[in-house]
Every structure is written in structure tokens, then in C-alpha cells.
Design brief:
Length: 240
């Protein structure tokens, strides 16, 4: 009986310790991001340049741009997310912080999840908020804006989680950016299909719910599996 009481008393303390570890790592990532403000603007600038160049290269006709807008905006957001993934673990690997994380008493998957969460909030969420503004340049119908924001919010979370696995595997390589793209781009295809499909369905007057539900299911699966895969990949990179 005493052992049961002791275990029940330790459980809240253990949960509080895990939560404090997550918050400490999350705050550290936000503090680092504040010191590197230009890195946060690079994906947004890349997204804006891609969207602005497409009408010049294809045609300025509003009807043609409206047809390709869902897929174009989603592809541009996907590439912008990919652009920011190469630096997710590289600076920590260079200064030894990753090794300290692996030796920490806190679970490494939890610390990895904190880094991924910060990356999504600082990169994915701004992209989801800015892409509808760029949709005006592509004559995106008004019925697609809300679904576009929702699909990108879910999709960029999945992209961060999946991309973190590739970033962890290639963190120790001198030219890991190219290999990172080759590793994660095939895994991004379902996210792209469901995300762009939801926006297209909303524009055509259909039901976007099934595609959004599938996007949410992908995000849930990635959330459950990716932190452990990232932790294992980091251990491989550190011991390699």
C-alpha cells in the first residue's frame, strides 16, 4: 500500500518535471529565434517571391491564376518550409548543444518536440497567415481563404514533424540540404495532395471536410511518431 501511495505521489511530480523541461526548451528556442530574426523572414520572403514571379512567367489572366492558385500556394509554402528545415538542428550540433540534450535527464523525444513546436509556430503559422494575402495576387476566390489557412495550419505542422526527421539524419553532413530534400519530399506528397485538395473543393463549392480530416489524421500520426524518430536519428548522427 505504501508503494502504491509513493508511486501516486511521484506521478504528478514526474509530469510537472516533463512539462517544465518542455517549456524550458521551448523558451530557449524562442530566445534563439529572437536573436536570429532574419532567419524567420527568409521563408516568408521566398514565398512572396515565388508567388510574384509565377504570374510573370505564366500569364496575368485572373481566370488562369485562380485555377492554379491552390496548388501553387501550397507548393510555395511547402518549399518555404523545406528552406527553413536545414538549420533546425545544425547550430545546436555545431556548438555541442545536441550532445547536452542527449545526455539530459529529460527524455530526448520531449526536447525534440519542443524544438519542432517552436519551429512550427515561428515558420508554419506565419506562412499560414500570410499565404491568403498572397492569394489576392493570384485571384483566389474568397471561398477558399479560410480553408487555405486551416489546411496550411495542419499541413505545416506535419511538414515540420516529418522534416525534422530528415534534418536530424543529415545534421552531421557538410551538404545535408540536398539530401534532406531528397529524403522528405516524397513524404510531403500526401500532405500536399490533401491540403491543396481541400482548398480546391472549397473553391468549387464542394465539401472540404474530408480532406481536412485526412490532413488532421496525418498531423496526429506524425505527432505521435516523429519525436521518437527524430530522437533516434539524432543519436545516430551524434554517434556516427
Amino acid at each position: 500500500m505504501n508503494r502504491v501511495r509513493l508511486a501516486s505521489a511521484e506521478s504528478p511530480a514526474r509530469d510537472a518535471g516533463l512539462w517544465n523541461g518542455f517549456l524550458a526548451q521551448f523558451r530557449r528556442e524562442l530566445a534563439i529565434a529572437r536573436r536570429r530574426g532574419s532567419d524567420l523572414l527568409n521563408p516568408l520572403m521566398f514565398l512572396a517571391l515565388v508567388v510574384m514571379l509565377f504570374p510573370l512567367g505564366i500569364s496575368p489572366r485572373p481566370d488562369l491564376l485562380a485555377d492554379i492558385a491552390p496548388g501553387l500556394l501550397w507548393v510555395a509554402a511547402l518549399l518555404a518550409m523545406l528552406l527553413s528545415l536545414d538549420t533546425l538542428f545544425r547550430s545546436d550540433f555545431a556548438d555541442g548543444s545536441l550532445e547536452q540534450m542527449s545526455l539530459s535527464p529529460r527524455p530526448l523525444p520531449l526536447l525534440c518536440l519542443a524544438k519542432i513546436t517552436a519551429h512550427w509556430l515561428l515558420t508554419g503559422v506565419p506562412l499560414a497567415l500570410c499565404v491568403p494575402l498572397l492569394g489576392v495576387m493570384l485571384s483566389l476566390p474568397a471561398t477558399g481563404y479560410l480553408v487555405l489557412m486551416l489546411s496550411l495550419a495542419l499541413g505545416t505542422a506535419t511538414l515540420s514533424l516529418i522534416g525534422a526527421i530528415g534534418a536530424a539524419l543529415t545534421v552531421g553532413l557538410p551538404r545535408g540540404g540536398v539530401l534532406l530534400s531528397l529524403l522528405v519530399l516524397p513524404l510531403y506528397i500526401p500532405v500536399l495532395i490533401f491540403g491543396a485538395g481541400a482548398v480546391q473543393a472549397a473553391i468549387e463549392g464542394g465539401i472540404a471536410g474530408p480532406a481536412l480530416a485526412l490532413s488532421g489524421a496525418l498531423a496526429a500520426i506524425a505527432l505521435a511518431a516523429a519525436p521518437f524518430a527524430v530522437a533516434a536519428a539524432l543519436r545516430i548522427s551524434l554517434n556516427g
